[in-house]
Structures
1.
Amino acid sequence: MKTLAMPTLTIGNLNLKKPIIQGGMGVGISLSGLASAVADEGGVGVIAAAGIGMLEPDFRGDVAAANERALRREIRAARQKTDGIIGVNIMIALSDYKTLLRSALDEGADMIFMGAGLPLDIPNVIDPGQIRNGSARIIPIVSSARAAGIILRSWSRKQCFPAALVVEGPMAGGHLGFKREQLGDPDFSLQRLLPAVLEVTRTYEREFRVSIPVIAAGGIYTGGDIKEFLAMGAGGVQMATRFVTTEECDADIRFKESYIAAERDDMVIIDSPVGLPGRAVKNGFLRDVSEGRKKPFTCTWKCLRTCNFRKVSYCIAGALTNAKLGDLEGGFVFGGANAFKAKAITSVRDVFESLMAEYTQYAGAAV
């Protein structure tokens, strides 16, 4: 069967050859290595800013400076490796998110994805003219139509609009924007969330004559998933988990192998120290925590504004840094609900070829 071409996606004045955005994975999992490889294949490669400076030699002395330096370095490194589209993921919950946002824009990041909070003040943090003229393509990540509406209503007062929106469902990895009881509720599935967010954005598109593509995210793993959500009206998809088990992913090989060794039942929901549920791969570290064993740590800087470090049993930034480096006794691995489907370490190019084949197969079966 001849491989079918996926539709292109236009965000602002940028045309993506493939409507695939690599999700940002913090604390060093998606840096310039993975991002540049995805960009080379026609998608959007995304560098995650969260915890990006954790391995800088002076991190404990000046955290903000270490984060800013590391982010600038990774954006520049990605630019040297690819002519493709490079984005940056910045969590609103980060204490230094404003500095990171300005630094990413200074370095010429093509898109800024903003989650873990509502980015209502962005038109005040940066020059709103940058948003209006398209030089700052800001893309909020939301988990509901209500959140999308709040952002659009707030920004529209300054005649500003997001370059796109990402709607992330409860099958995603890492921290989740849902309550525990909502994670398995069909009413909160991505299939329900996407149409509701599309309805909200289309209202603003018609009224203000703007284009706001909606990108589906959370549990999207195959080309068949891509076809399903594009058929529902999504302009593109965001995928993170599928890219972890690639040679180009910036995590240690032991991090990647934890996906390959995982079974479906190993994907568990945890209560993160930052006050949100999260999805991770079950291991001894998480078992110790669930059984009440504390992991002593010293907080040198409150990196996440929502973390009550005096009451938690471990430092999540430290645990995720250890995992990035392959120390799974001292940390754990975040992953989407489909992480257990990974069977081998492959290349980003192989992933794209597989996605295209799966997309074609699904499209043929649907005819």
Note: Residues 63-81 form the longest helix (19 residues).
2.
Amino acid sequence: MKPPWKVDWAMRWAAEKVHFEPGGKDHASPGGSYDTSSVIVQAIFDTAPPVFQGYEFVGIQGTGGKMSGSKGGAVSPGMLLDIYEPALLKWLYLRRTPTQSFNLAFDTEIYRQYDEFDRAVAALKSGQSTPAQERTLRFSGVEPPALPPIPFKQAVALGQITQWNVAKLGALLQTLGTTYDQASFPVRLAKARAWVERYNPDEVIQLMDQPDLAYAGSMSLEARARINVLRDYLQGLPDSIVEMEEQVYAIPKQLEFEDKQTKAAQRAFFKDVYSLLIGKDTGPRLSTFLWAVDRAHVLRLLTLPA
């Protein structure tokens, strides 16, 4: 048999000689399970209640609900370690008090968490951490590398562009003139790939198989002209990513435009390019993407019907 919950809890305290018992905030509320079970354990089992610590819930963002094993809403450590580095995962818990809630993110919120963690590690390396922040990071197993790791968001975008190939990623970053800790490449690429392929298929960056004739037909003559300028430029085999960066921003510019108009024209132009290439309004940094992907396929997708 199983007694009602509040009696069962008190019975277990007495039978198992429990001295410390944490519980969720619902059990910690005045008149809640802990208060009631404390009376029961003394009156019926003649035992003192354990020391209690109430805690806030851990949410699971991107899948819905809170972390609740009793309701089937739990995630396994293996699932979390698919997308989180162990030190980051420990840091997320250790930097909070039990009465502070936080979310484990299976959606794009994970970008912010990785960025905050990287900034905290950089502050530790530069000696700008408070004693409490340093202690939290040390307990999390952090040893700051000589160079910063590749940001998780870049690992997601550039990893897809390079087909998750560590060597290709290193070569691309070298071309971009960006230096990161190379030891972070295989680790973060693996986490980024799992995050995209298992939990965020909508974030997959993939060139369309065929030209989007319907979208091309909806474009204005001015927008089509800009796409043709880009296509002609790409046929000339640009020398560098830096040059390509300048060109993709320059194509929508007009001499009479003010800054606000220029930015609006650039946004519209980028939206058209992304829509024609990957069927989405936005995507990875355009110059890097155009540099890295199959140029012949890109030219085919940017060929507009007459």
Note: The first strand starts at residue 20 and ends at 24.
